[in-house]
Structure formats: C-alpha cells, structure tokens
Request: fold
Amino acid sequence: MVLPATIILFVVVAIPIGYGFYLSLTSYNPVETTGPRFHGLAGYAEVLTSAEFWRALGVTGAYAVGTLILTVPAALGLALLVNGKFPGVGLFRGMMYLPRVVSLVAVSMIWLWLYSREGFFNYALDLVGLDPVEFLTDESTALPSLIVMRAWKALGGSMIIFLAGLQTIPQELIQSAAVDGAGRLRTFRHVTLPLLMPITTYVVVVDLIYLAQSFSEIYILTSGGPLGSTTVVNMLVYKQAFENFQLGEASAMAFVLFCMIFALAYANVRLLGRSKK
Amino acid sequence: MKRPHKHRPWRVLAAALTTGLALSACGGGGGAGGTAASGGDKTLRVWFPGNLSNEVTWVNGTLVPAFEKQHPGVDVQVEFVDWANLSTRLSTAFAGNTAPDVFGHGNAAAAGFADAGRIQPLDEQVAALPEADRTDLTFLNDGKVGGKQYIMPLRGFGYLVAYRKDLVKEAGLDFATPPATWEDLRAAAGKLAQREGGKVTRSGLLMPADNTISMSQAFGTLLFQAGGKFLAGDGKTVTWNAPEGVAALEHLTGLYQGSDAVSSGLGEKTASTGAQHPLATGRAAMALVDDATLKTIHEQSPELAEKIGVLSPVKKAEAVSFGGAGNGMFISAKTKLKKEAWDFISFMLKPENVKAYSLTVGGIPARTSVAKDPELTKVSYLAPFMEAAPQFRGNPNVATWTQLRDALGKEIEKALRGTTPPRKALDDAAAAAEELLKG
Reply:
C-alpha cells in the first residue's frame, strides 16, 4: 500500500537531498565538462568563513523578523476586528485574504511600480509636498521597503489563522471573565492571548520558515542591492549557482540554510508540544 | 583528491530538485539537441535571448518559415529565453546534455563557453564565406576568443549621450558646437542640472547605473575615453586601476557627489524603460544611453522623438565609447546538426535578414553595407549609433570576464555611493580580479 508513496518520496525527496548533499562536498561548475570534483568539507568551511554569507544571513534574519514584527500584531488586531458579526464582514475577510492568493511574483511586480520614482507612493508624497524617496535604490530604505511589501502579502493569511484560533476559544471562558468583572482589555490579556499562544507560535514559526526561504520578491524588486543590503541567503545561493556557476558552494550554502530552517521547524514542534501540555 | 565524473541525467534532475530546496524558481531544460522529428525531419533547436514581441513575431512569422522553405527537411524549433534567465537555463542545459543546437547570448559570455568546451569554433565555416562577406561583417573580430571565431554577432550596440533639445535650449546652451571633451560635457551638465535643497532633482547628465553591470559599462566608457583598458593585452593583468582608470572613476563619482553634483538616481532602472526613462519624463536633460534604450524612448514617447538629439563620443584622450558586438549566435559543441546549425546562422546573416533584424529588434546591423541602407539611416534613434560604430570598444574576451565584471561592478557601486574612495575601489576590484585570473 505504501510502496508507491515510498518510491515517490525516495525519488523526489531522498535522492535530490542526497545528491544535493554530495554536490555540497564538491567543486562543480555546470558549464564545465569536468563534472563535480570531490573536495570534502572545504565548501562548508568556505561558506562558514565567508563574511558575505554571514552578512546575507543577517539580512535574512532582519527581513524575517522585521516582517513578523509588522505582520503578527496587525494580523491579530484584524482577526479581533473581523471576529464579530457585522454587515460586510465576509467581504472584508475575503479582501484581506486576497494578497495571500495572488502570486508573489505578480505582487512583486505591482510593488515594483508602487515604489518606483514615477510610482504611486512618490506621487502621493509629491501631493503632500514631500520629497520623493528612493525606496528600492537607497541602502537605508531598500530592506524596510521589502519588509512592508512582504508584511502586506502575509497579513491576510496570518489574520485567517488567528481568526480560526479565536473562534475555537470557548465563549464560556470569556463570559466567566466578564462575570468576574474583567474588562475587554483584561479579558484579552488574561484569557484570549494565553489561549492563542499555540496559534501565535504556529504563525510565527511557520512564517519564519517561509521568510527564511525568500527569493522571488527580492530577485524582482532589488536583486539583492543596493550594495548587498537586501541580499538574503537564497539570493546569494542563486548568484553563486547561476551567475558565478559555483554549484558546489551554492549547495553547501543551501544546506547550511536547510539546517537552520530544520532547527526552526523542530523548535516549532517542541514549542507546540509544550503549549498543548 | 579530485575525482572527475561524467554527467548523467539523474544527477542533473537531482541537482535541479535540490537547488529547489532553497530557490522557489528555476528554469528547466528541453529535449536533446538535433533530433529527428516525425516524418523524418531534422529538428534544429534554437534559443534566442530576450522576449521582445517584435522579435518573436519576425522570427516565428518570417525568418523561420523562410529558412525552412530553403532547407526542406529541417524543422526549426525556436525558444525565446528571457535575458535574466539565459545563463541559468544554459548552465543547466549544458550540465544535462540538453543544450540547444544554436543559441544566442551576449559577446561577454563567449570566452567562458569556449574555455569550458561548450561551443564550437567556427573558423572553418567563416573561412568558407566569400571574402566580400567576411569584410562586410562589422563585428566579426569581436567574436574571436584567443584568435578563434566562436560567436557570430547579429548586431552591435553602443553607448552615446542623448539629450533633450528643448531643455538644452531652455538652459541657454547651443549644441551646434557640441561638447567634445569631458570638461565640455561636465560644464553643460552643470548648467542643465536642477537642484532643490542640495538634492539634484533633474540630472544634467545621467549615467547608466541600474546595476553593477551597467555601472561597469558606464565606467568602461570613461575608461576608454581616458585612454585606459580593463586588462592588458595578455588578458591576465588588470589595468583598470591604472591612472586612466582612477581618473575615469573619479570623474564618474564626481557626477554624483559633492555640492556641484549633476546626477542622481543611482540604482534606478533606466535600461529600455521607454516612456519612464528620466530623459522622457524630464528628470534628466542628458543621459548616456544604449541604442536599445533610445529605441524604447522613441517608440513609447513618439512625441519626444524630434526633441531628442544624440552626441558623438566625447574624449579625455580618445573620442570613443563602450560598445561593440552585442548578442550573437553560438553553435553547441555537442550538436549533431553542425551543418544545419551553421546554415541557420549564415541565413540570419544574409543582408536582407540583417536589415530586417535591425529594423525589428534595433541595434547596429551586423553588416557594414546594411548600415548604409537608406531605410536604416533615416531611423533617427539608430543612425548616430551606426555612424559611431568604429568608435565603440568592448570588454576583453577572457574566460572569467563576467566574474571580473561583477567584481569590478561591486566596487564601482561602493565608490559611486561614497563608501569607498575611487582609487581604493579600483585596487580592491583588481585584487579580487587577480584571484579570479589566477584560477
């Protein structure tokens, strides 16, 4: 019964991961005809001692954490807002969820225009008499601009998860708190928020895992520039693999990132387990 | 211990899937090159770089049917590959033995592919061409690597300064005697620039600075004008940090920095932006543009066509500019259809097709005779580039050029953004390049 699934898993998961790991132990330029040349852990040593890699890891962390700081509180607030029953709530929920279902590439193209010198944001700034901002081409604004775009994209999905979490909270507990004289704020702080902890943990860790793998929006909006200020690890992997044709080193980088993402996923499972207890 | 291995398809599949662990988007290869299609036809696979709709229409609707009519039994399958993905697609296709029989790419890629043994030398085929054809092919020599012909350029390109006639007149300048030196051009840019609160709101002279590639090309223009070179004649010694290079980068950074800066918009995409180009929107009065960018401005802002003029290259030591052979055609080393592949390339280089290609795609025609064609010389965005063709200088054809260019581009960006002084930036780039040249 499980044989077909096992074979598929082996072919599309185990073999690529295994071969990818092998490649990470080699020096391999796909344009050359010599094929991969085994050089052990040298590629990992090169990656782990590369200032460029650590900088990219820092950018990845800043991007992921920055996006979460914007997304999680806003998504929770919106979920609380749409948890009630009022006319048009369904439409509002649907509209908020829309960015989630649109392709990230399409969203990035739209935001590329929004952020451009002739785009909407600079037009709006001009209307109120402010100087234009080089959103994507200035070292100090490029990463924050990416974070805002990504937070907008992630907001609806996180809101729906929080909403689902809110709707599982037994109304008896809320009513008991009210009977005990707790106001809305105290009820939220001492009843709703603790009961939402597993959901919050899930949202934070799953989003962190996704954000750590970000590539397409950065490729489209900034290509890692200016001055490498938006070069996340996956952008560096791409550049090493397909611009510098260093597939071995790129694979080593991908595996280091994979280990870090795996550690995050493991932490997610442990935290969720602890929350349930 | 180094253990070379032969490529196998499963390895390529596995490698591609593994890279997918980290990357959300990867290109894929097609079928094997040079196959027999149903009905006994030979299938010639051709990849064109870029996806301009005009080019797609002309290639699929005119060029390929005409070729197939002349070569019964050859079925040409064309694929247009976006420039941004071309290297990715080609590298995976090479590794997986699925490279097309014929493919187009920029001249800068030739030496790397030749060094890796992925493309065929074309000396025999070129030698068999009539003498008149060989001398007529303008950029033939640019397609040589180590003395061997590897690429057949389909067109040329170059950078020239375009300017808005109305803004020049408004600033009280008269380009009847056009700027001829760096100093002339800088002085004109100073008069054309507009500032507000210390910020340049209209560039007097905008240089291409979309990314590290265009920054290195802008630097290349000034380097050549200063009498410098990227590399010495042996192709192994970096010379971009010689005094000519330092003067070029200091001149370039001076356009962006200081109280008398005349340029803004570092990192802003300007290549082929048409109506959004600062020259079209009025955010720049002069701009160093390539022929393709000027073409898009003319096409998307036709009302500006009459208002845009183009200057001949200015000089410090020599009146030249960055340019030369643009994209051209290669034949894969492993093609089984060597004859048909060459037939296709030589068909593309027939005068009537060279003319149609230039009219459709833009760029300096690959034949000198075609550049004199009245239909082309009356194209206002093309004529100045065709005239200046002998003044264009390209990058050196060395195997690691694209990596050297990236190393240089990164440091030029640092200098332009004021984080590294020009001399140090060039020395740092040279140090990184020398490591690459050592291999």
Summary: Residues 17-276 of chain A form a domain with the MetI-like fold fold (CATH 1.10.3720.10). The two ends of chain A are 34 Å apart (CA to CA).
